[in-house]
Amino acid sequence: MRLTDDRYASERCRFELALRMIRHEARTRTIRDCTGLSDDRIRKVYATYFRDQRGPQIRRRRGKSPQQVTLFVKNPFYQLEASTLVALFCANLLLRIDHENAIHPCWPRPDVEYGHRLCRAFETYQLLHRRPQLNFEWAWNLLQNISRNDELVLSICTDCNTRYVQDAYALDHHTCPGCEIARQRRCGKRATAIPA
């Protein structure tokens, strides 16, 4: 068997994505949704490649993925990070925004390419924020929730015309998190910092 044979290319891509997602501490179900690998196979991949590794330990998160959306609008800092992720989802063609500012998923359901695009968006987000507060599972949750245009929506800032993530059921002053943080600093107020 040659690893370059076309009949093994699909299997190799699924395996590579599983490794990439495990490095981001994705839950088994999230990996399964994107790769189609069985739960048992995913656990074996983790046991083989990550359980006894040296250096920083990669944890296996258990239980369901987070479902709440309040974290994304908890304060301007979290809102800014969530807005960054949504922009990166759009740049990686996971989402698209129509002329009425509604968000639409570009994929009917997750697959290997979807998983790699999600990983790319998340890795870029980690590079853009000095101490990123949202882990991979929160990014997955945001991607699923924002595409429903239900609890989370995009709003447009009246000051700088930037789109940002907003709670659909909260009072919206149409001020993006970047402008809100700058306003708090100008007024001498100490902006609410992200916990360490």
TrEMBL record:
Top-rank lineage group of the source organism: Bacteria
Protein name: Flagellar transcriptional regulator FlhC
